[in-house]
Amino acid sequence: MINKVVLVTGANSGIGLALCERLLGSQDAEGLHLCLACRNMRRAHAARSALLGAHPAAQVTLLQMDTSSISSVLSAARELQLRFNRLDYVYLNAGIMPNPQFDLKAFFRGLFSSSVITMFATGEGILTQKDGVTPDGLQEVFATNLFGHFLLVRELEPLICQPGQTSQLIWTSSSNARRSAFSVEDVQHRKGSEPYSSSKYASDLLSLAINTRYNKLGLYSSVICPGFVMTNLTYGILPSFPAFLWTLLMPLLWLIRVFTNTFTLTPYNGAEALVWLFNQKPERLDPRAKYHSLTSVLGHSYTQPRQVSPITLSTFRCASNDVAPFFLILFPDGCRLGHVTGAL
Ligand SMILES: NC(=O)C1=CN([C@@H]2O[C@H](COP(=O)(O)OP(=O)(O)OC[C@H]3O[C@@H](n4cnc5c(N)ncnc54)[C@H](OP(=O)(O)O)[C@@H]3O)[C@@H](O)[C@H]2O)C=CC1
Ligand SMILES: CC(C)=CCC[C@@H](C)[C@H]1CC[C@H]2C3=C(CC[C@]12C)[C@@]1(C)CCC(=O)C[C@@H]1CC3
């Protein structure tokens, strides 16, 4: 019997896969149906086999979905409506940071500056990316990390906004999300060099907007920060730095935990806040909090809500006028897909 249906995007590796493992290993696993939404079916099958290897009785199904493609998201949403009559949790986790450029000079300057801890906690000032354009004509990072997920949410309304039932959306955001990287004049960050940071900030805003509009329909949205986790995404930041060198650096990375609890490092620890939210009553959550996966010096992982920082909050209030057009783009009444993409 199915009690809860959980959809996870980007579930075939890293934090998404660790989340699936942890959910299946938890006490509430009975009656859980996990649907892994992945763009690459070969990797999706490998992930499913690994999960079933450890939990042979688990209900794990696969769904092909490329969040950067409008047609793929639309057909995945249609397929979900055929397969399920409700979705209890939707983890919007798939994400990319393409062609990252690591500024070594800025890194060494940062090491000897007062902002060293912020640099390690957020990667601020040392990372830029070169974005591409998808066949739909959208910016790749924006389309993958934000827009495809937003479109999915809109298309899944019949499954996630049902009378007498609550559903949760949980976004994997980032400590790299920065207000200053986001502009309503350039929502997709076409002109800048930090599309990743911008897309993650936009997901924080979008989650707030979703709560304003959908809470009355029983749909709740939260954002989490997994911390700094060693995954394919982070290995890509220093491509000339082979994985075994990262392994050699592990003692140093553990040591850095003395200064910042954001070095969660393993996908298991990074998934902490995602698992924590699974067990919460969404009505009791603070919609303005960001839930952080943190790990102590001794390796104990825990979840901590952090209010959106005062700077961001006050900027958000001051910026409510310039943020409004962003929401208008996202939530025009009776909006049709063509209007949304056309407006962008
Ligand atoms: N690692 C870290 O330190 C941090 C990560 N995050 C966020 O965590 C999330 C998970 O990343 P992480 O586990 O680190 O990295 P991984 O690269 O291991 O996982 C990313 C997942 O997203 C999938 N994905 C990428 N593009 C698409 C697409 N177009 N359609 C569908 N799926 C896609 C990947 O699939 P495929 O295998 O096919 O590439 C993969 O399954 C991301 O949103 C990332 O931004 C946030 C903060 C820190
Ligand atoms: C000693 C040593 C070699 C440390 C690693 C330095 C940097 C490569 C990392 C320090 C902080 C990291 C970080 C990220 C990437 C790698 C670092 C810059 C992210 C930006 C990865 C993606 C995110 O969403 C947030 C991460 C914040 C911290």
Automatic annotation (TrEMBL):
GO cellular component, one term: endoplasmic reticulum membrane
Keywords assigned by UniProt, alphabetized: Endoplasmic reticulum, Glycoprotein, Lipid biosynthesis, Lipid metabolism, Membrane, NAD, NADP, Oxidoreductase, Steroid biosynthesis, Transmembrane, Transmembrane helix
Entry's transmembrane regions: 243-260
InterPro entries: 3KSR/17beta-HSD (IPR052834), NAD(P)-bd_dom_sf (IPR036291), SDR_fam (IPR002347)
EC class name: oxidoreductase
Bilayer topology: Single-pass membrane protein
GO molecular function: 3-beta-hydroxysteroid 3-dehydrogenase (NADP+) activity; 5-alpha-androstane-3-beta,17-beta-diol dehydrogenase (NADP+) activity; estradiol 17-beta-dehydrogenase [NAD(P)+] activity
Reactions mediated catalytically: a 3beta-hydroxysteroid + NADP(+) = a 3-oxosteroid + NADPH + H(+); 4alpha-methyl-5alpha-cholest-7-en-3beta-ol + NADP(+) = 4alpha-methyl-5alpha-cholest-7-en-3-one + NADPH + H(+); 5alpha-androstane-3beta,17beta-diol + NADP(+) = 17beta-hydroxy-5alpha-androstan-3-one + NADPH + H(+); 3-dehydro-4alpha-methylzymosterol + NADPH + H(+) = 4alpha-methylzymosterol + NADP(+)
Subcellular location: Endoplasmic reticulum membrane
GO biological process, one term: estrogen biosynthetic process
Coiled-coil parts of chain: none
UniProt pathway annotation: Steroid biosynthesis; zymosterol biosynthesis; zymosterol from lanosterol: step 5/6; Steroid biosynthesis; estrogen biosynthesis
Gene3D superfamilies referenced in this protein's UniProt entry, alphabetically: NAD(P)-binding Rossmann-like Domain (3.40.50.720)
Pfam families for the chain: adh_short
EC number in record: 1.1.1.210, 1.1.1.270, 1.1.1.62
UniProt subunit comment: Binds to the short form of prolactin receptor.
Family the UniProt entry places it in: Belongs to the short-chain dehydrogenases/reductases (SDR) family. ERG27 subfamily.
Descriptive protein name: 3-keto-steroid reductase/17-beta-hydroxysteroid dehydrogenase 7
Organism this protein belongs to: Hippocampus comes (Tiger tail seahorse)
Lineage of source species: Eukaryota, Metazoa, Chordata, Craniata, Vertebrata
